[in-house]
Amino acid sequence: MAPSSLAAQLAQIAANSKSTLNVKAQKAAHAKSLIFEPKVAAGQSFQTVYTICREGFDDLCHLDARFAPYDTTLFSEQSQDEDRTQMTAAENAELDKKVDAFLHLVGSKLRLMPAIKAVEWLIRRFRIHEYSTASLITTFLPYHAAPAFVTLMSILPTKIPNQYKFLDPYIRSLTSPPRATIVQQAIHHFEVLSTISTWTLDSCHAQQQYPGLISFWGGVMTEAINGMLDQMRSGRKAIQRDNDQELLQKVLPILGDALMMKKVPGLQIATYMVLSVYAAKGDLDDTVLSEFMHQLVLGWTGETVRPGLICLSILAQYRSAKQISWKVAKALLKVQDLEQLLLDVHKEHRVDKLANSLALALIDRLIKKADARGLPLIRTILAAQMLNDKLASVIFKTLLVAGLKITDDIDEDGQARRQLGLTIVALSQATGESGDLYRTVIEEADFDIDDLELRLEASIRPKKFIKQTEGDERLAEDEAAAALAEEMDLDAGLGRLSKHKKTPARTCLASDSDPIFDELCQLFIAAAADKDDLMKLDEVSILARETAPADCFYFSFYMRIWLGPYPILARARALEMAKTRLQEPDCAKLDFQALQPYCIAALSDPAKKVRRAASELLAVLQSNISDAGSRKKATVTWGSQGLYKKSQGLKWLTPEANRALLELIIVPALEESIMHDDHIIAVLKETLESSNKQSTEKESSKKGHISSSIRSSIFSFLTSHVVESPVLNLKLRLLKALNQVQKVSGTSRTPLLLPLLQWWAALPHDEARSLAEKESLDEAQVDLNFVDIIVANDTTGLECVYDIIQSKTAEDRSGLVSAAFARIRKMWPSMKDRTKFDVAQKMLELSQTQGTVAEEATDLLRNVPLTTDILLAFLEALQDVAQLAAEPPASKRRRTSSSDHHRVGEMQTSPELAAALRKITLVLQLVEASEPAEHPELLQSLFMVLSELQTFRTLVGSELGYLQNLVLSSLLAMMPTYRSDKNLKIDTSVGHGDVLVSCIQKSSSPAVQNSALLLVASLSKTAPDVVLHSVMPIFTFMGSSVLRQSDDYSAHVINQTIREVIPPLIETFRKGRRPIVASASELLASFVIAYEHIPSHRRQGLFISLVENLGPQDFLFALVAMFVDKYGTSDNVLTFTADLINHFNVETQLQTLVKFLELVADMFKSKPNLSATLFGKKENEEEVNKTALKQLTLLPHILANRSLKREIRKLAYRDDGETVRIRELYAQLLEDILTVADTVKARKVLHARCGDALSSLLNLLSVSEFIKSVETLLDRPNVGLRQKVLRALESRVDSEGQTDVESRTALLAFLPQLTSVIRDSDDMLYKHTAVTCVDKISEKYGKKDIEAVAAAADTIAGKHCLGQGDRRLRVMALLCLASLVDVLQDGMVPILPTAIPQTLEYLEGSLNGAEFDAELHNACYSLMTALAQHLPYMISGAYLDRLLAVSNKSAESSLGAEDHEERTQCLHFLAKQLDAKVLFTALQKNWTLAMEVGYAAIREFISVLGMGIDKHSKASIGKNVSSLSAIFLGAFDLRRLEHTQARANMSKVAELEDAVNEVALKMVYKLNDAAFRPIFSQLVDWACSGLPRSDILGATLRQQSVFGFLYTFFDNLKSIVTSYASYILEPAAKILSNASLKDAEQREAWKRVLRTLTKCFEHDQDDFWQAPSHFGAVGPVLVEQFLHAPQLDLTEELVPAVVELAAAADSQEHQKELNTTLLKHLRSETAAVRLAVVKCEQALVDKVGEEWLSMLPEMLPYISELQDDDDEVVDRETHRWIVKIEGVLGESLDSMLQ
């Protein structure tokens, strides 16, 4: 009965309850102790425990006063009386809180005994190990390796909290859990980690932490986070993201709380360690990392700031390189000595990303709030190289950008910008690699550094120090800083300037004023930011401000400043100072046009501020000119005498031109020029280039019209200043405009500016570089602008360029030389043809020199378009060069030998030859690069050069392949032009073809050969007459060289040559008298011979191209035949030729095969024609046969090609004209094969090849098409042909699928014709083949047309086939009929009355005679097997008797195993399929015949019988029991009958009897008791009384057989048939009693009877043998058999029978009777009898045991007598009997036997 729900609830309450009424359980609970053994603890009272534990608590209070409050609670006197089971839930909860608080506090003291005693009290009194299990375990867990933890585990309750379930195995084994286990649990079960973390954090909040707890938590937490990160790894981003989020949500509260524990630095440091691991492996995003950083700095203290900084640097390393939050940065700024701390950490850890993020945050704060507090820290970070170069560059550049972004709104007093400026200056002026890096950043800055300097009021770029005079020692290296400070002091500078004397040249543009200018410039730059300082400097006497209108020093100083490499502010201030001075009255009367070029140059300044100042200055100049014009007074031109040292070449503007320049050109463009620095250049170019022919001098005053004279004046004015001014920047800026003006009023710029170029070119390299560097200009740009002075077609200018190029300083001034060549290249399109020709000749001449000039000249020629005339001139010059190189000087000719060898060796080393090769190479390269197709006129010259190269190469002793290839590629490029332009003709009489042949044959360079072949191919198409007469040697050469190349280009060349050359060549052959194939045989041979040298991957494509261009209809057969003749019929050759032929259409393939067969037939003619040409003449018949064999071997291989079959079948369905043509070719091919086959009939191998080809040919068509052909062929008289056709049909049937409807229909429709052949033909082989075809067709498709198959079967079974005398035909007919039985089944019935007798007759005949006909034998059995399988009812009666009789003979024959298998299979089918009555009746009749034939027949008979019994049902067996009984009686009589014959072999008889017994058992299994019992009775009677009494031997042999079966019967059926023993009691007793054991047969019968009885006794389970009648019938008889002991050993048969009878007759009376009789025999006089009985008694003791020994008293006297027996063996066995008895009884018999 199931328990009620109430009972279940009560059971659950009892399980969870911590109180019990069970006294034993209470005692066990009280015995739980940390200190005492359970037995001791169980006997202690609470008072005793309290006394002991109180001592420990008092000691704790002395150690730590925080324990004192528990004196009145947990450890008070009243606590002894508190019982938790009596307390309310609220009281228990309050108690738990106190316990937890105490455990938090006591955790640090658990290694001390007082603490263990205190906890002992809580366990014993308050049972905290049951009520606060989790808290108690957590308290002890940091000490998990200590013995105390093991003791704790021993007292824990059975049910512990879930988070600590992992301790169960350790609790059971009482072993310490390893740390790894705790970590693993923390990884896989977060509640473990959460419990430990919560306990630790609570302890820290209560200030009850201790180092062991924190280190334990930190270690577990770190390893757990590491493990969880590994565990949560996933290859899918979404899953990984979810895992990361889940972990973060779990640990973030714990870590956040721990980071804020300011009073517990140890916990914070442990958390830093956890964070470091988490960041390193967790792939956290920037938001999370930033939050951790914020919490970290929010909670750190002075004690934890250094490890916190390390952790912060680690977090930053895994964060992107962007700024940290201002909160973090602000916290960092508050750290004392942060700079030094960062430096210390930097020595041991990477802080680059933290420093970078911090610097970015500080800079951002600086930009937004003008907070400069972080600048010292940034300076420290950058100066200490905490960052790599890339990050440092970014930070420094960000500082520079910050200077641009800080506005006055944020930084009102400019203090932040000044500090930023000081920081940038300090960093940029630092020494070492860092200083170089920051200076590089400034130089590469993509914003206006000058503007930045103005904003920061500091000079950021590196100072350009003034050169020191020899006497000035103030700037020594050790006083550099002081010197700089002094230089920057304006008053000190002005004081130094007062000591200077005025320079002789009163202009700053003179070189001797440089020292003064440099010092003035330095002071000016320093004062530029302060206008008051500027005014002070402006008043210095050395500047001569007062005399500025008359003296050039003042204005030239400022001119040099505003065009110099100085800060923007300085340049702008210089223009402003000049403007201010010009506005004074004393300048109004002067013409300051000398300032205008410098102002115009300033208008193209990159700085807008400078351009604006320049525009204001120009406006003042324009105003002054207007005033002067209104006064109409003559003005003096300022600077006309003293501005430049030499001013003779200066051109000055007329007043009109001066006014026009300012008023009409410059001033209107000022606003736009301020906006764009290149606008003024465009304005000048447009103005100077404009040519208004209608304008006149009078019109020049009109607004907007400038006359040519004025433009010419302006042009001359500007160019003269460009030439005369020493300021390179002025030259450069004005040249940008002037170089864009070709000429003005017929005056080219080149004559005006050429002196400038000549001056620059004449300067030494160092001086030119110094001038450019002085003004911070790019020397290369200066070179380019200066050479741009030259214009195209100006002879003087070009000569100047040549002079520059060819000057001695050209190598030093390589930049200028390169610029000159670049200028020529740029002018080339504008040059006249004559000028181009001259320049090209000059360049060619220069290219043959050495050095940079030669390289530049060569490069120029390669990069400008060369005219046809130039190229022709170059090529003509080559002929002279080749001749000069080939003819040595006269003096050398006299000294050299006449030997060519020595001459070549001499020439190879001559400088002349090397120069000639260089020139030839260059010219040919130029020709090739000049697009030769555009210069077809060069063809003749190129061929001449190619011809010369053939001679020249022998002189040089080199291939000159490159040069030849250049010529050939150029010629090849011209061919399309000659083809498209009919007016261009190629001279055919010159012998270009011979030149190309020579080039191809003599060259060993594949590139040359390929190019020459391509040219030949192209010429063949363009001008065939040029090369066709020379083409054959080319193909011969190709076969030995070019075809061997494996590269793609060579393949292209070959294909191109074949495609272009062969078609016209074939057309030439067609015009000849010889057959076209014979004419081309040499060509074909060249390709065939080359086949083995052609790369394998190129072969097929090349020969396909060859055949397509030759014409496959005419040449494919010949090429294939030559292949096979040359290379034989290896698999590779056969595959290649088949693939080659398969490339073409079906008609071409069949036509090729027809011609191929004609060629083979030609070989056997008395006078071969084409075959002799292609294969060569054969000396004897053997050679002809070898060649023919190769050809005929190829033929079937090609015909068997699947692709050919597929294409032919496609055409067959179309049934159009092409199909008709295919059929015609097919017929022709068939006829040719037959013709050749007849020709070679005497040559067996060749004839066989023809047969193979014929079969392959016939297989080409589909079955339907094939049958159409077959129907025609079968009418031919050639029987052999018809037979082969049918064989082909047979193979076709095999290959066809059963689902092919068309094939099936055609083949079934063909069956009547095959039947006709079988019926009407006299040729046995033909009939045989026809029958085979019928067999194949019927087997595959017969069931679809039963009538046609039945007709064929009738014919085959008749006299025309099966009835014929030919053995092979009979065999085939039988096999065919066997197949037809499967197809027709019942349809075969009408035929069988004829077929079966004939078959049996043939079967009998196959076994008669000297030799057996195994094939016919097997065929007969095949048919009979088919009948047995499908029509078993047709085999019965006489047929079956006859078949079984002949099978007996077959079984005894010496046929092979396979033959016997055929018969066995047939008989097995009969056994399974025949009706039981028919089968068993026939077997009954056949038994005697089988015995007469022999043992093999008997064995097979038994096998068939057994299979029949197995197959048929119990009912069938029951119905035929009489036949079976007769069979088995005969079988059991086999031993007797065999014994009467001399051939008897008892061992084989025994084997047969075993088989019979086994089969008999099968019958027994299928019979019930009612059916079998009469049979059994009959069998026993038959065995004992079936023979005359006189025939004792016969009766004995029959009894042996029967009792042999009975032994098997009782042994297998066991207790089921024990009752059947009643039938054998009397016969058995009689045999045992009457047996004469001296007779061997009777002795064997005696043994078999005993064995049978033994099995009966052994399996008696129904007390059959306890019946007195049954026991009495055999018991005494058995015992009497011991008297036979002297004659034989009784232990094998008799003793087991007696023992089993004693065991089966389980009755004391029967056993006593047996024992009494046996004991009597112990007193026999015969020792053998006594010994046998003793052994029997031993066996009885073993088998029956104690029951048998109940008769021991009766045995003892006999045993005692036997102990003294005279026979030693009896005596020994008696002792063994005694031992066995003692073993059963368990006591000794000695006392009983005394």
From TrEMBL:
Residues 1514-1664 form the BP28 C-terminal domain. GO terms for molecular function: snoRNA binding. One of its GO terms (biological process) is positive regulation of transcription by RNA polymerase I. InterPro entries: ARM-like, ARM-type_fold, BP28_C_dom, HEAT_Utp10/HEAT1, U3snoRNP10_N, UTP10. Its main location: nucleus. It is found in: Nucleus, Nucleolus. The keyword Ribonucleoprotein applies. Keywords: Nucleus, Ribonucleoprotein, Ribosome biogenesis, rRNA processing. It comes from the Eukaryota. Belongs to the HEATR1/UTP10 family. This is U3 small nucleolar RNA-associated protein 10. Component of the ribosomal small subunit (SSU) processome. Involved in nucleolar processing of pre-18S ribosomal RNA. Involved in ribosome biosynthesis. Residues 886-908 are annotated as: Disordered. GO terms for cellular component: 90S preribosome; small-subunit processome; t-UTP complex. The lineage of its organism: Eukaryota, Fungi, Dikarya, Ascomycota, Pezizomycotina.
